[in-house]
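Write out this protein's structure.
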Amino acid sequence: MTPAYPRLALHVAGHWLTEASGGTRPVVNPADESVLGHLPLAGVAELHAAAESAARGFAIWRRRSALQRCDTLRRAAQLMRDRVAQIATVLTLEQGKPGAEATREVLLSADIIDFQAEEARRLYGRTIPPRVEGIVSQTVTRHPIGPVAAFTPWNFPANLPSRKLGSALAAGCSVVIKPAEETPGTCLLIVQAFLDAGVPPEALNLVCGDPPLVSETLIAHDAIRKASLTGSVAVGQRLGALCAARVKRFTSELGGHAPVIVCEDADPAAVLKLSVPAKFRNAGQVCASPIRFIVHRRHCADFAMRFAEAARALRLGPGLDPATQMGPLTHARRLDDMVAFVADARDQGARILCGGARAARPGWFFEPTVIEGAPPTSRVMQQEPFGPIALIDPFDMLDEAIDRANALPYGLGAYAFTRDLDTSHRLADEIEAGMVGINHYGVSQPEAPFGGWKHSGIGSEQGSEGLLAYTDVKLVVVGRSA
């Protein structure tokens, strides 16, 4: 076991479990393929115990005042800041991203929790003037939904659990959280921070295990009132159907295939400076990662050449090396997916301007890749690559660019660059996505909603919208006594 890596455990019914009925699985460092530790896996018994614990914890936590919940969550956020070096190191070891990216992720996660903590104090209702004689008052109030099952993937092991935990706990809900089995250590340390800050132990459970078993068991349990997922479209459809069959609330963020429109009046050099780091951040394993660069024909050839030059110059390496600019993919199977995407595009006539192969070094590294002229029928133009692949193609008329940006069933992040105010407003209005960045890639902020249109999900996280998603609405009508 790596000294900096924690001993892995589940947190069920107020206790840390280093053994569970589902067996164990190794957690692997993607930078060198060494085993970091062994993760206990929950079976049905532990999952039922976690759901029942959440029900008991909800009865306690929901009675805490909004101010008390706010204070507790702010303490948790500060503990995360105090422990940022430890949490970021564990994040890099199990997920692979450079240390500077991991540190920023942990600090941003603390900011997300802080914002939701403060929003708990502003969970306002409203009054409605009566229209019927005899009614004294009509008030609308919001109440916590109840115990929540939260499912998060491996690409942002701190940020994604923090979004769900911060919002749910701020609203007064209890949580059973399932982080990805590939990256459990980061979430373990975050849960510990919440517990140390004063969240009742039974109100916060952490489980890992066989993903279908975990999700199906928790959603079917009577105690669970809502599920929240960040994951693939296929998994979202499955979990959404399970929730619908039981009339349970469901929020999902299901990835994207973000277009980037570079207009004729844009400054190509400035766009390039922003685009290369945005594209290859976290090795492209970002749901809102820019993927399809739709560049005006006047700039396209030079833009593609310079993009490839910058991508080729990126330094690959383990995340704990301060000189590393791009780390490995988190999964060995992602390497096979990248190879298949590139081969399919090449077979259909695309030009590989750089990369396109596994890097010749230990670990799950794939070369930063730039592809020009991938046809619309190619897999990489239809499916989210979720890796270090950028696609570049020219356009002539803005109508054409917008049509191509909107052509896919995804609608999470989208971006555009222009110096014309009218064009900026038109792009913001006509691009079909939950988040549109004009002249900037920073669409994910603690104060702003994060969510998609179309197949990219249902509902939003972060911002005030994220908190409201964990509440139910109650109307109370009071009439004069008889």
